[in-house]
Amino acid sequence: MPSQGAIIAVLATAGLCSSFMFTLMVPIQSKLPELLDASREDTAWVVTSTLLAAAVITPISGRLGDMYGKRRIVLVLTAVMVVGSIIAALSPGIIGVIVGRTLQGAIVGVVPLGISIMRDVLHEDRVDSAIAFMSATLGVGGALGLPISALVTERSDWHVLFWMAAGLGVVVFALVIWIVPVSVLRTAGRFDYVGAVGLAIGLIGILLAISRGNEWGWGSPLILGLGLGGLAVLLIWGWYELRIAEPLLDLRVAARPAVLLTNIASIAMGFSLFASNVVYPQLLELPVASGAGFGLSLLAASLVVMPSGLVMMVLSPVAGRIAKRTGPKLLLLLGAISLIAAYGFSLLFASEVWHILVANILIGAGIGFGYASMPMLIMRSVPQSETGASNGLNALFRSLGTSTAAAVIGAVLASYTVEFEGMPVPTPQGFTLSLILGGGAAIIALVVALFIPTQRSPAEKHPSMP
């Protein structure tokens, strides 16, 4: 059997692959209308499609992993991502790129599945540190992927990005087959197809309303119909799930205080993280003459942001040791405090590039601790037969936070603009309000985390525990 270190390394590589998908398009997002000969509203689907696919697939794939084998579903999701990358790489037009990007979104499901595999196959002493390491890849992949993507797009054809993604997926697929053992833990029963369809419809309605509200108008009939319709479908879906014997997600487990409060904190933490992803790069890249920016190139700006991901990686073993000694709740508290410090520092000091660097280091510490704690808190509170689905649901709540941040911060920056060389650019007041909102979300995460119970049921211990 492969060493436990090798298993952790392979699953972490899969996590890096997942996070890379979300930074893949950042360097060329503003150029997509020209590259694809399409309107800006149409090219927005290149990003939105990945977001929607990831949100829908993640909780469903978690349940499939519990039932049919987590490694098997990881392989399926990786293969789907590879196919999507090839389709996008070969497509000169927008339709093929959107289809490819939608399929690429499937890879996001490997992170909660990988964390669940760790609980199944690793020795108890390695689980917490391994989960912290896996969680860190969510930031590291993005932090490293951004300058790599920027460099590729500056010096080569942008389609090369998709070939890189396909190659990385093939490597991950081969390593998982070679290294990761098959977990023998299975949940009996039949898959809830009705529940999966209902969840998908409800989530797509709500996420479309959140992600496209700025473009289509928050009060437009279409946005209201999507948002309220999606909410209504989810309410009916919840009623249905509580009344069948083999639900897609056991909502009674999801309603346990530790699980519910962790998921609520995940929304706030996801909002706080993505607010920084929107604000800091724009601050760094806007021209100095605009009155709000530092005038850095995309590559230089990505190098300033990159240390946040490296901090996550460096702190992952520290997070594992803290969780083992005191429990994961302290990690979540430390993460929220670090995020509050980052936004507070930026509100006081944002006149030099090194100020943004310091803030991003604090962001990296906050997200590194916070994201490491969430799956640990979840898995200490659910039966082992529910780990895949429960981690998938937690990942969904983080996605809701990031999606909401993208819409809200985007609306704020669009509302506070001035004309600069014929183009509207955000004002310092817009950035200040955005920083306040990001810090406010971190405060909410801290308050919610304080109420998370810490006890673990004896029936839910790791299988290697006596």
Characterize this entry briefly.
This protein has 3 domains: 183 residues, Growth Hormone, Chain: A (Up-down Bundle); 56 residues; 216 residues, Growth Hormone, Chain: A, CATH 1.20.1250.20.
Features:
466 residues, mainly alpha, Growth Hormone, Chain: A, 19 helices, 76% helix, disordered C terminus
Tally of strands: 2
- Judging from the principal axes of the Cα atoms, what is the shape? globular
Query: What is the level 1 CATH name of the largest domain?
Result: Mainly Alpha
Low-confidence stretches: 457-466
Assigned CATH superfamily of the largest domain: MFS general substrate transporter like domains
Question: How are the SSEs ordered, and which strands pair?
Answer:
Blueprint lengths: L3 H20 L8 H5 L3 H4 L1 H24 L1 H21 L3 H11 L5 H12 L2 H32 L4 H20 L13 H24 L4 H21 L9 H4 L2 H29 L12 H8 L1 H20 L1 H21 L4 H27 L7 H29 L1 E4 L2 E4 L1 H23 L16
Antiparallel strand pairs: 1-2
Helix pairs in contact: 1-7, 1-8, 1-9, 4-5, 4-6, 4-10, 4-18, 5-6, 5-7, 5-9, 7-8, 7-18, 8-14, 8-15, 8-17, 10-11, 10-18, 13-14, 13-17, 13-18, 13-19, 15-16, 15-17, 16-17, 16-19, 17-18, 18-19
Describe this structure in words.
With 466 residues, the protein is mostly helical. The chain folds into three domains: 1-183, Growth Hormone, Chain: A (Up-down Bundle); 192-247; 251-466, Growth Hormone, Chain: A (Up-down Bundle). It is 76% helix and 2% strand. The protein has helices at residues 4-23, 32-36, 40-43, 45-68, 70-90, 94-104, 110-121, 124-155, 160-179, 193-216, 221-241, 251-254, 257-285, 298-305, 307-326, 328-348, 353-379, 387-415, 428-450; strands at 417-420, 423-426. Strands 1-2 form a two-stranded antiparallel sheet. The two termini are 23 Å apart. The model is unreliable at 457-466 (pLDDT under 50).
